[in-house]
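name: query_chain
kind: protein
chains: 1
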Amino acid sequence: MSALLAVAALPCGLLIGLLLGALGGGGSVLAVPALVYLLGQSPHEATAGALIVVTVGAVTGLVCHARARRVHWATGTALGVLGTAGSYLGSRWSAALPSGVLMAAFAGLMLVVAAMLARRALRERRTTGTPAVDAPGEATGAPAATTPLRDPVRDDLIPEPVRDRPAPDPVRAPVRVSRVAATASAIGLLTGFFGVGGGFVVVPALTLVLGLEMPVAIGTSLLVVLINSLTALGTRAGTIALDWPLLAGFAACAALGSHLGPRLTARLRPQTLATAFASLVTVIAVVMAATAVPRL
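structure:
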């Protein structure tokens, strides 16, 4: 591996961190292609190394979201702990697969991620397209009596009655324990098998299954990603030789990007980021599939 390729891969680490911090997940799917195609690592080395990049990025992003009080610690810890078994099994299964099969499966995963992000962007666009309200259930076209505030994450106008209201409990309704456990296990399985954080699954699960608001779901997902990544790393420890100097630089860029990610959401709408990222992931997935499938 040349030093030029190593330097060229650093912006990828920055982009991965940005997406982790801004969207709560998804950016980690870029780590494996970058490590394989830019840095010449084997698929098994890349999926293990990606876990380190994801872990460092998740820690930095989690700190930023925690300062903004956008992390539901109990929910994130429960999902992370419930997903440890899946993460362990995923790591074992991944090590037993041939490299070609692993990369072809990863290309399929990237297409699924792109579809989920595109759907999420469409849902967010529909949500933010609703008229502003002065009170719950009362739409109005008249300007507010006071200067409106903007939500720093979604860039939406915050109605006056909501501003002064104490933050509600993000979890509003009871859910089935079996459904939560199954979701957590699937997330852990993805993390261990592919070396990804699984945030692209965690965020929809937290919003649709557990009823968390989107900003809180993004911050909480990083806690789940962190727990699952540490479990998968512990399972693979000592089984694969890693290029630690290279991964340190890659992870440092991811940490910087993850620190800047929450600030990016204050300037750009999440659906804009999700749409652009979904397009990028689709292109990379098609290229990976065209390379890996003929080798099966």
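note: The longest helix spans residues 99-128.
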